[in-house]
Amino acid sequence: MGKRLEEIAEELKQSQKSVQLIYAFNGTGKTRLSKTFAQLVQGDRGSLTRDKILYYNAFTEDLFYWDNDLENNQEYSLKIQPNSFISWIIEEQGQDQNIITNFQHYTDDKLNPNFDLRNNQIIFTFQRGNDEDVEKIKLSKGEESNFVWSVFFTLLELVISERKIVEVEERSTRDFDNLEYVFIDDPVSSLDENHLIEVASNLAQLIKESNSEKLGLKFIITTHNPLFYNVLHNELGNANKHRLEKYEDGTYQLHTQRKDSPFAYHLFLRNELRAAIDNDAVQKYHFNLLRNLFEKTATFLGYKEWKEILPEEADDRARDSYKKRIIEISSHSKQSGDEVAALTQSHKNMLAYLFNDFESRYHFYKEETREE
């Protein structure tokens, strides 16, 4: 017997878990669930929704639309739908520079958003590093998704940093004092795998750093993307995992997901890493894939630490060194001391060595050699 969406929302609200992760196919009703949940949490209609819940969904992206300058095809601008949310983030919270920093982290440090709130628009320029005029550009769909997500992620970073301040009188803003929930619905609809993995990893890291149980914040994350789900599944080990199903009669069921991921993620990781090594196309995010592969295998084998997956010939000191380097490269830290700007050949060689050793010891062989 299925349930109404309002009952599913109530079920999520009654959970004591600080993080809930939900997988559902497109068209199931994830976005409607986020709005239903927000209405349930808001309760007092006299207050702003954001007083108690922040939520990201398709309607967040709809706050922006492009003016394509069809007449001249050169004065592109990203228009902001009239709303109080964007001006609140930028003008009241003063987060424009942090939004730019996050956006450039995902894209290119020469790609600059210029906020013009008086005219409700954002103009993007690209500085080529020479004497040429700055070029006004229109973002790709993926870049646009990265920008909108950067707005929300910047706000989330601010929320967590303020809520960490125990003495409320010392906080720079009191706007987040009553916040209870963060509901994130599919921030990855237009992202490639590289950015998708990075968004998932950064979000998981921020949630873990927030120590949400002490801060009194609860997170609900929904997605239709198996890769995004699996990265969060691996990173957020203590989260409640669900699968949302919609029946033909329009009712719903929230199934509890078993501890293991419902997708053959380890096979996906193996194939991606093998292809990158064979094609000399190793990038930073492949270290994140390698780390997730090691973590999943270590859990399956019952090891306490995934460094036990590292080469048997290495001693503890060498394994600690490998582990430290993998974490540094895969963490996407914004601190300049930790950030690896570009992979060197030695980094690529290290990844190939570690992965080849892993394949050899755990019998992940190429298809054509499996019978040998």
UniProtKB/TrEMBL annotation:
Pfam families per UniProt: AAA_13
Outline the extent of the Protein CR006 P-loop domain: 115-346
Tell me where on the tree of life, at the top rank, the source sits. Bacteria
Q: What is the protein name given in its UniProt record?
A: Wobble nucleotide-excising tRNase
